């Protein structure tokens, strides 16, 4: 089967100070297996997971088949931190991460004694790519008076350079906590999430200027038109989206928080501004409600992602079965870097415990 690749443009900030030059990456485009092949793959993967003493942890944004398979085999579908924590608590010796590279790395950092596999090690993230460690370290060195807070969507090496790691649902309390201590903050890599946190808290924050290629594409003008056409719909927005889109939200939150809002709300219709992979979980949990994708089209649109992350889409049943069979695509993190990267993660986990924020509720892209 011939492999097809698509080219992807992403923001590469110039030392974080100004936005942005554009860099190019790529993603493999998956081909859907036919129904009979799909059934055979699913039963093979179930057998291999047992044989390999492995557990499948999947992100909300991956293909519904993988989400269903993770849950059907005793694994989990969630955000990246929950995925890593679940793997840590689960007795399986192997964790298979269906997501993108930084998620596999986070799982390995928290579980260095376990084998961590991924269907495709080249599944990237524009936030991670747009924040190379050498440039980021130079940026940090230029501002030694600032506490370095990084988002989960970063490499192990960038986490190792940070004082704190946060995910989107704990970012506000962590930044408020640092403000109480009189700290000034250096934030990376997502500029939209950083602006949102800055606006909500009033903190002194210097922002790295990265962005998510999926959330950056949501369009405010077209969203206003869509709201007018669906006046009863609640607008759910992930804060990696542009400010003008966040302003139109009824609920702003992490993946887990948006799912929870959809469950709790009496509304029957929702416009969702985050990767459309999440709609599978929302529709499963709320079968009587209607979920619509927020618009990515309109003036200036290039539709790199069309509401779906091309790197998350690199996870499929075929490459999942292959890695379980051949053991390739194991995630490795330099032990010294892993040890340093673990500190800001554990600091966040401890803080979450102190403020009684359930881990299960900590979400990120
Ligand atoms: S959806 Fe955005 S933040 Fe999430 S992995 Fe893809 S590029 Fe990264």
Automatic annotation (TrEMBL):
Its cofactor is [4Fe-4S] cluster. One of its GO terms (cellular component) is cytosol. Pathway: Cofactor biosynthesis; NAD(+) biosynthesis; quinolinate from iminoaspartate: step 1/1. InterPro entries: NadA, NadA_sf. Pfam families: NadA. One of its GO terms (molecular function) is quinolinate synthetase A activity. GO terms for biological process: 'de novo' NAD+ biosynthetic process from L-aspartate. Keywords: 4Fe-4S, Cytoplasm, Iron, Iron-sulfur, Metal-binding, Pyridine nucleotide biosynthesis, Transferase. It is found in: Cytoplasm. It catalyses: iminosuccinate + dihydroxyacetone phosphate = quinolinate + phosphate + 2 H2O + H(+). Its main location: cytoplasm. Its EC number is 2.5.1.72. Catalyzes the condensation of iminoaspartate with dihydroxyacetone phosphate to form quinolinate. This is Quinolinate synthase.
């Amino acid at each position: 089967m011939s492999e097809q690749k698509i080219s992807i443009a992403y923001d590469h900030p110039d030392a974080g100070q100004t936005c942005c030059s554009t860099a190019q990456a790529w993603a493999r485009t998956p081909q859907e297996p036919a129904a009979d092949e799909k059934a055979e793959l699913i039963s093979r993967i179930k057998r291999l997971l047992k044989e390999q003493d492995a557990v499948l942890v999947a992100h909300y944004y991956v293909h519904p088949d993988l989400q269903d398979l993770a849950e059907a085999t005793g694994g989990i579908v969630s955000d990246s931190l929950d995925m890593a924590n679940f793997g840590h608590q689960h007795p399986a010796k192997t964790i298979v991460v269906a997501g993108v590279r930084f998620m596999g790395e986070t799982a390995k950092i928290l579980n260095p004694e376990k084998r961590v596999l991924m269907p495709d090690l080249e599944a990237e993230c524009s936030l991670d790519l747009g924040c190379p460690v050498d440039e980021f370290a130079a940026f940090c060195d230029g501002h030694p008076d600032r506490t370095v807070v990084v988002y989960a969507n970063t490499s192990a090496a960038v986490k190792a350079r940070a004082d704190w790691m946060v995910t989107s649902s704990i970012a506000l309390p962590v930044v408020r906590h640092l403000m109480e201590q009189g700290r000034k903050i250096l934030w990376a890599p997502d500029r939209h999430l950083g602006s949102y946190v800055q606006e909500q808290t009033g903190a002194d924050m210097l922002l790295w200027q990265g962005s998510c290629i999926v959330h950056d594409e949501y369009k405010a003008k077209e969203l206003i038109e869509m709201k007018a056409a669906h006046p009863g719909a609640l607008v759910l927005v992930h804060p990696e989206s542009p400010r003008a889109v966040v302003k139109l939200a009824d609920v702003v939150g992490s993946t887990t928080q948006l799912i929870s809002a959809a469950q709790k709300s009496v509304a029957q219709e929702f416009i969702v501004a985050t990767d459309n992979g999440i709609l599978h979980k929302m529709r499963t949990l709320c079968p009587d409600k209607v979920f619509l994708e927020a618009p990515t089209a309109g003036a200036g649109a290039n539709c790199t992602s069309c509401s779906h992350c091309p790197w998350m889409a690199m996870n499929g049943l075929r490459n999942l079965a292959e890695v379980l069979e051949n053991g390739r695509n194991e995630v490795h993190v330099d032990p010294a870097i892993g040890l340093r990267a673990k500190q800001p993660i554990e600091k966040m986990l401890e803080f979450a415990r102190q403020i009684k924020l359930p881990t299960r509720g900590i979400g990120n892209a």
